[in-house]
Design brief:
Distance between the termini: 29 Å
Structural class: mainly alpha
CATH class: Mainly Alpha
Order of helices and strands: HHHHHHHHHHHHH
Number of strands: 0
Strand content: under 5%
Radius of gyration: 21 Å
Length: about 290
């Protein structure tokens, strides 16, 4: 299946039929009037996932909620030049806050999984109580935040601002420009990371975030952008996978360090830390090969 067909299938799956893949029709569309066609399916996904978390913090559903929120943040970033800067910053901050709330529980799930992989099952078992507590905090935060209302109001306000603007930007021109900007950011961050020491996780983390942004934008605007901008999707997925794996072990080490005083057998905790430090080095090397 050709790339354009893959992208068009994804758009149809997300109920984005308003965006016509026909070149002539696309040329008459504007970025401002197309915003809701991109935003509404993402909001729907986030609300649906949040609704399933009312009684239990399921790890997979928390992950899906985080992904939907990250994609929304990326869309708001794409439309940033057309939105009031303060509004765009606030919206991205809201999505980040909600994503972090959803992520706290999943971070513990990853920690437990990785520690179990070291063979320290007793140590992993002791962290399940902390995971349960994090789960309750995640549920409470998301419930109090009223995800449905927050997201609906945010998209409505952005849509209103865009559609009352005097200027109109051709959708194709907008999509190609924003993808190009994101790709340049990724290239710069990869260059910085390639020059950094292997202990400089921050620069690797920036590559991961930039890679996600480009991937999401390519998936959003696939039928609108040129073949050259689309062809790197496979590489982006590889970057996301390897740098995501590195992020998992780094986050796990941070959590483990923070809770070394918890009721875990000291020797078991130290063995787990040692094994995870070795795994961190291995994943750093694997990620560095893509720079």
């Amino acid at each position: 299946m050709q790339l354009a067909s893959i992208y068009e299938s994804r758009l149809r799956h997300n109920d984005m039929k308003k965006i016509d893949a026909d070149t002539g029709a696309r040329d008459n569309q504007t970025a401002e009037t197309s915003f809701s066609a991109y935003a509404e399916p993402l909001v729907g996904d986030a609300i649906a996932e949040a609704a399933t978390l009312e009684s239990a913090a399921d790890a997979e559903k928390l992950h899906k909620l985080r992904v939907a929120l990250r994609r929304l943040r990326t869309l708001i970033w794409a439309y940033g030049p057309m939105l009031d800067s303060k509004f765009g910053t606030q919206q991205r901050a809201i999505y980040k806050f909600l994503a972090n709330a959803a992520g706290n529980t999943r971070d513990w799930d990853i920690l437990i999984q990785l520690v179990e992989a070291t063979g320290e099952h007793d140590a992993a078992e002791s962290f399940k109580q902390a995971r349960a507590e994090a789960s309750q905090r995640s549920l409470a935060t998301l419930s109090h935040a009223n995800v449905k209302q927050v997201l609906r109001e945010a998209v409505s306000e952005a849509n209103r601002e865009l559609n009352t603007a005097a200027k109109r930007t051709p959708l194709v021109k907008f999509a190609r420009k924003r993808v190009a900007t994101a790709q340049k950011q990724l290239e710069k961050r990869m260059h910085t990371a390639s020059k950094a020491s292997r202990n400089d996780y921050a620069s690797f983390h920036e590559v991961r975030k930039a890679g996600k942004k480009v991937r999401y934008l390519v998936e959003f605007f696939g039928p609108l952008i040129g073949k050259k901008q689309r062809k790197g999707l496979k590489d982006l997925k590889r970057i996301q996978k390897r740098f995501g794996a590195l992020n998992d072990v780094v986050a796990t080490l941070d959590l483990l360090q923070q809770h070394r005083s918890s009721p875990v057998d000291g020797a078991a905790a130290e063995r787990a830390l040692h094994a995870l430090h070795k795994e961190q080095k291995r994943r750093f090397k694997a990620a560095a090969k893509l720079l």
